[in-house]
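Readers outside the structure-tokenisation community will struggle with the description of the input data as it stands. For illustration, here is how one protein appears when written out as sequence plus structure tokens:
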Amino acid sequence: MQMKIFIILLISSLYISNSYCQTEEELFESANSKRKLQDYKGAILDYSKAILLNPEYLEAYYYRGNAKSKLGDFRGAIEDFTKFIELNPNYPNSYFSRAEAKVEIKDLRGAIVDYSQGIELNPEFPNAYFFRGNAKLELDDRRGAIADFTKQIELEPNNSLSYMLRGLSKIYLDQIDSGCLDLSRAGELGYSKAYEAIKQYCN
């Protein structure tokens, strides 16, 4: 009986020892596989283990932040994106990702700052202007929102929702004719709700 217990303990210790012998790269790849399978909790665990082995593992912070966002842990995600930015301040997507998490916790001003920093690094990313414009709308900065939707349309001229939101913002500011033209363009591009707005504001 004592021999059986000894063998079980020996096997268990070997299993535990082997599990801790994974390199940071192996843990990172394991985490990525789990993330792709939407096992976000398992992915976070493996990213965390990789970070324990290498506290400056940039990609592990970034993807752990993404996994936390998927689970609704937006404050935890912000912490990870912030750490990533401290280590590498020149990657625009980290600012965009942190901005999205800040929007979720209603830190709209902080989100706008992050979108702006990301845009400085990558001024040709249309979605950043769109989402910054949305944040400005929520803060009632309609002129700022119009400027962002206009830039987004320059980069992506077939985005019907940008025309819709820009049009409604213009109408709110009594720019009726220009706003109605935007609503009409949104409808032409396939945004059917634009026609309901045209009936309400433009006829």
